[in-house]
TrEMBL record:
Annotated membrane topology: Multi-pass membrane protein
Major place of residence: membrane
Entry's transmembrane regions: 20-42, 48-71, 92-115, 151-172, 179-200, 220-239, 260-284, 304-329, 359-377, 383-402, 414-434, 440-457
Keyword set includes Nucleus: no
Name the record gives this protein: Amino acid permease
Compartment list: Membrane
InterPro entries attached to this UniProt entry: AA/rel_permease1
One of the Pfam families matching this protein, by short name: AA_permease_2
Record-level Gene Ontology MF annotations: amino acid transmembrane transporter activity
DNA repair among keywords: no
UniProt keyword list: Membrane, Plasmid, Transmembrane, Transmembrane helix, Transport
Length: 468
């Protein structure tokens, strides 16, 4: 196949399949394995949460291939917002970008809540307990409704977002060596917990593997496994980082799919192994906590108590980097929207010294901190998953549309079996949205309606000002 380097806009094609797989693993492993696995098992799937991870990985693989093709051909920042705007028009592009706001901003809050949980676990392990009134959300999610918990504020979650926001404003230059260290710490912690936990598993806790449905859709049974797949979908957010490097891959037609599918495969194996250890050492009904891995280690007995500080430190290090990446990514979407005059121009302003979009970064951080301080993990996870799944559906639609409207456009990477794979991606992602439950897609519908109103108001303003 002819090299497509002519279309890479001067970017250096230096990444091979190994580098891309490691990049994907580093971006994917974060809040999912340290946080969401426990609540998904406790609330929806029981030990069968491992099957939920398989289904979510399949959905991500199909969407990731579509993402790769668009990333390889786009010349703009803004990710899925720019791709869908180009293919489906500015209104759909805006709504996808509006969902990306939910993905990055709310995901940062979600991860921060998990960070707070592991900080509390670390302090407990050294005999310094933090007051729960200031380390827990004042609200909890019960049957789709928020209820008061008696706590005042999740202060550590808000503070870590504040610190990450400051770092994002002044500019963060992270070397590849530093990234590799973070990945190494995270993977080492996971492998140690899996290896040690395998000797402490009680197989009786896996029976029944798929708990009987309670009579309510999504609460255990097959429907619970499906709903958990929609929730744990958040665990795979980050694979799109591989797709965005398509222009820098040495052989994008070969290496990008290897990077996406390889990183998804590695992370899926780790997720399944960790979920089996968690549900095999702790009754699944007790796993709905911000730090389920730390709880599992504590249940293994005093003989392995030395692992607990390691788990908390590894989780804190890994989750901190994820929060920072999310708070850096969101302002880029705002920046692209402001350039298209959908958002006010202040979102496109760059700091004269730090050369970062400081205003949009501060706004993002402030909102994320408020969400993290007030809401529980499961509520935030549902918001992130539904918005991201819809964005991935639109990315898949964009591939089909652009193949018809611009069949001769240069594509360094091409999705195989079009339109079959994009259609499978659309159907699977759409189904995962539906099983999240009426409360989840009601919130998604309200979010989209707000976004549409904002778009129409901005469009009317642009026409009146003569800049549309």
């Amino acid at each position: 196949m002819k090299d497509s380097g002519d279309h890479r806009s001067g970017l250096l094609p230096a990444l091979g399949p190994v580098q891309l797989v490691l990049l994907g693993v580093g971006c994917i492993i974060g809040a999912g394995i340290f946080v969401i696995t426990g609540s998904a098992a406790a609330d929806y799937a029981g030990p069968a949460v491992s099957l939920s991870f398989l289904l979510a990985a399949f959905a991500c693989a199909c969407a990731g291939l579509c993402y790769s093709e668009l990333a390889a051909t786009s010349k703009e920042s803004g990710g899925a917002y720019s791709y869908t705007r180009d293919a489906l028009g500015p209104r759909i592009g805006w709504l996808v970008g509006w969902n990306l706001i939910m993905e990055y901003l709310v995901a940062a809050s979600f991860v921060a809540v998990g960070w707070s949980g592991y900080l509390s676990a670390l302090c407990d392990s050294v005999g310094l307990s933090l007051p729960k009134a200031f380390t827990s959300a004042p609200f909890k999610l019960t049957n789709g409704h928020l209820e008061a918990t008696g706590a005042i504020i999740n202060l550590p979650a808000a503070l870590i977002i504040g610190l990450a926001t400051l770092c994002a404003v002044i500019g963060v230059k992270r070397s590849s060596a530093a990234n590799m260290v973070v990945v190494l710490i995270k993977v080492t912690v996971i492998l140690v917990v899996i290896a040690v936990g395998a000797f402490h598993v009680n197989p009786a806790l896996w029976t029944p593997f798929i708990p009987e449905n309670t009579g309510t859709f999504g609460q255990y049974g097959i429907s619970g496994v499906m709903k958990a797949a929609g929730v744990v979908f958040i665990a795979y957010i980050g694979f799109d980082a591989v797709a965005t490097t398509a222009l820098e891959a040495r052989k994008p037609q070969r290496d990008v799919p290897i990077g996406i599918l390889g990183s998804l495969a590695v992370c899926t194996v780790l997720y399944i192994a960790m979920s089996l250890v968690l549900t095999g050492t702790v009754p699944y009904t007790q796993l709905s906590v911000p730090s389920p891995v730390a709880l599992a280690v504590a249940n293994m007995g005093e003989g392995v108590s030395w692992i607990l500080p390691l788990v908390s430190l590894g989780a804190i290090a890994g989750l901190t980097s994820v929060i920072l990446v999310l708070l850096v990514a969101q302002p880029r979407v705002f920046f692209a929207m402001a350039q298209h005059r959908i958002l006010p121009s202040l979102f496109a302003k760059v700091h004269p010294t730090y050369r970062t979009p400081h205003i949009s970064t501060i706004i993002t951080g402030a909102i994320a901190a408020a969400l993290a301080a007030l809401f529980p993990i499961d509520f935030l996870a549902e918001l992130v998953s539904s918005g991201t799944l819809l964005a991935f559906m639109m990315v898949s639609v964009s591939v089909i549309v652009l193949r018809r409207t611009r069949p001769d456009a240069p594509r360094p990477f091409r999705v195989p079996l079009v339109p079959l794979i994009p259609i499978v991606s659309i159907l699977v992602c759409g189904y995962l949205i539906s099983v999240l439950g009426e409360h989840a897609y009601l919130r998604l519908g309200i979010w989209l309606a707000i976004g549409l109103v904002i778009y129409e108001l901005r469009k009317k303003h642009a026409v009146a000002a003569g800049i549309a």
